[in-house]
Amino acid sequence: MSLSQGRQYLAIPGPSVMPDRVLQAMHQPCPNIYEGGLIEMTHSLIPDLKYVAGTAAHAVIYIANGHGAWEAAVSNVLAVGDRVLVLATGRFCMGWGEMASSLGITVETIDFGGRDTIDMDRVRDHLRGDTAGRIKAVMAVHVDTSTSVRNDISALRGAIDASGHNALLMVDCIASLGCDEFRMDDWGVDIMVSACQKGLMTPPGIAFVFFSDKAAAVRNAMERVSAYWDWKPRVEPDLYYKYFCGTAPTQHLLGLREALDMIREEELPQIWARHEALASAVWAACFAWGQGGPLTMNIADPALRSRAVTALAIGAPGGTRLRRWTEHQAGLTLGIGLNMATLEDPNADGFFRIGHMGHVNAQMIMGTLGSIQAGLIALDIPHGPGGLDAAARVLAAA
Is 187 found in the same domain as 291? Predict the structure, then answer.
């Protein structure tokens, strides 16, 4: 018998749960795109986006997903034949490097595997070896959604500075912005990319690039930039359509305005603390279950884990079986084991992920964990006792 009737719960690492306030803000006729309230509202988004990013520099909006933000960032500061250093800690920095390569950029990759953070000493030494200064940029992901690793971006800036290299620091914050603490200016990031569908709690469709004056100077020296991806006309545009190189994504902007209002109301320090507490509850339950069974968290050290997503291994075919049970029997959708395939498990059936990002609270997390525990019992997957109790103690102490 299925018990999945009622509102389905999406516990994947993006798109995240969309707040009713955001959906209701979007549910109205399209506004005038030539004059009036929409234009003023769009102007108001920029300072609030900068607030979330921790920057006083530049912010632009694209009608795109995160991959579009990747291409926009690359297109504005890198030309065919330029060289970048990709610091891979999972699928997504690899993907950003692949996109750069498709645009004619030469890519050097240091692959730190799927369970480790960036080794700053290796980065420093690699850049010191580039005595000719051929590397124009260093690409990293703050939180890799596939592995749930969280990289220390401030330390990465320190490693680049210690090497004496002048490369731009480009960071993907698609999974982390509005969930894990991030401070663009304080951490010395030159370009940061993100998107709306995770910590910013808006349906997929718009993406963002934030960039420093140093990155702007690099763009200004470029011989050619694609008209659509060029960020220059989008910064303080003299005509409204230049924000988007065409028609505005009206309903998405209405939703984003509401989401940013919610972020302002709660305030970033509280948002970061909430994600910390909820993630800790997830980890406590998973640790308890793992004491009597095969479940393990992909990132062993809690200090190195994302507060937005947790990647787990449970042994094939347990991950797929558990995901299907929770979806069809409990109405809970868990994330797949993205890029976790091995020779022994080519379909990554032994992995799954729990998204705990954006519009989430204690009862949503406890419902997620309760459904997972019910699935472990129903499928006779060995696990230790006390998972829900462990999570409850974390939340009670928060």
Answer: no
Say if 21 falls within a structural domain. no
* Tokens (6 digits) for 150: 């969280």
Domain end call among 236, 265, 294: 265
Question: Domain containing 106: what range?
Answer: 31-265
Q: How confident is the model at residue 278 (pLDDT cuts 50, 70, 90)?
A: very high
pLDDT the model gives residue 53? 98
CATH number at residue 341: 3.90.1150.10
Average pLDDT over residues 139-160: 98
Q: Given this model, what pLDDT does residue 391 score?
A: 98
Residue 26: inside a domain: no
- CB neighbours (10 Å) of residue 249? 19
The residue out of 265, 285, 308 marking a domain boundary is 265
CA-to-CA separations, 367 to 14, 84, 224, in angstroms, rounded: 18, 43, 52
Q: What's the predicted TM-score (pTM) here?
A: 0.96
Q: Are residues 281 and 250 part of one domain?
A: no
Q: What is the pLDDT of residue 1?
A: 84
Same domain, 140 and 169: yes
- Predicted confidence (pLDDT) per residue in 196-230, tens digit: 999 999 999 999 999 999 999 999 999 999 999 99
| Residues paired with 310 in a beta bridge | 354
Count up the domains in the chain and report the number.
2
In terms of residues, how long is the chain? 398
